[in-house]
Design a protein that fits this description.
This protein has 92 residues and is an all-alpha fold. Helices cover 68% and strands 0% of the residues. It has five helices and no strands. The longest helix has 26 residues, at 16-41. It is elongated and about 45 Å long. The two termini are 34 Å apart. This is Transcriptional regulator.
């Protein structure tokens, strides 16, 4: 019996765990892009941000690379420092 890839793909996307992972990936990408844009436009270096936050440079780099792996208070503090805010929107 041939594999119906259209149905498989539709079922895969409908899986709540997969849907949640896709949403998390979109959120992560938006956070990373936002941080990069602000830091670039204001010429903020990782070292300057780390000093301002009282954090290690490697910790700041890790937070920029993968913000969703950070404790929420660290992420919010970084975003607030950069002038970024988290808002809720409807998922599409």
């Amino acid at each position: 019996m041939p594999l119906d890839t259209a149905t498989l793909s539709r079922d895969w996307i409908a899986d709540p765990d997969v849907s949640q992972a896709i949403h998390a990936d979109h959120v992560c990408r938006a956070l990373v892009e936002g941080m990069h844009e602000v830091m670039s436009s204001r010429s903020i270096t990782v070292k300057e941000l780390a000093t301002h936050l009282g954090m290690d440079e490697n910790a700041v780099r890790a937070a920029i690379i993968d913000p969703l792996q950070q404790p929420l208070h660290v992420l919010v503090r970084m975003l607030t420092t950069l002038g970024l805010t988290l808002t809720t929107t409807q998922r599409t």
